[in-house]
Description:
GO terms for molecular function: electron transfer activity; heme binding; metal ion binding. The protein is mostly helical. It contains 5 helices and no strands. It is about 70% helix and about 0% strand. It starts with a helix and ends in a 7-residue tail after the last helix.
Amino acid sequence: MIMVSQLLWNCIKKTALGLVVFFTYSAFVYGADEQFKIGQEKAKVCMTCHGADGIAHIDAYPNLRGQNKGYLISSLKSYQARERSGGLAVLMQQQADALSDQDIEDIAHFYSTLGKSSHP
């Protein structure tokens, strides 16, 4: 009887652990995909210069598609802090000023993920 109880208990623990892993993974995947969609919506103003697919059609504007997320965040915060100047910095400073930290995070996630297999 003790052996059956122990086997049953082990089965319950493994099932519970499996469910925790499954739901954690599902929430992560859903959350990342949701952040991509949110970032895509927030990035619409960026698309005017940087292209709808993150590839700029004017040489003066950098491509953002597949860019490193940390770099994008750092760049936008540098524009907000007026640490970047010259060229089109004044335009980017104005654009960056309108963004919250969450906006920056979402937009950076969108462009850094754009072009990868999950978001071609």
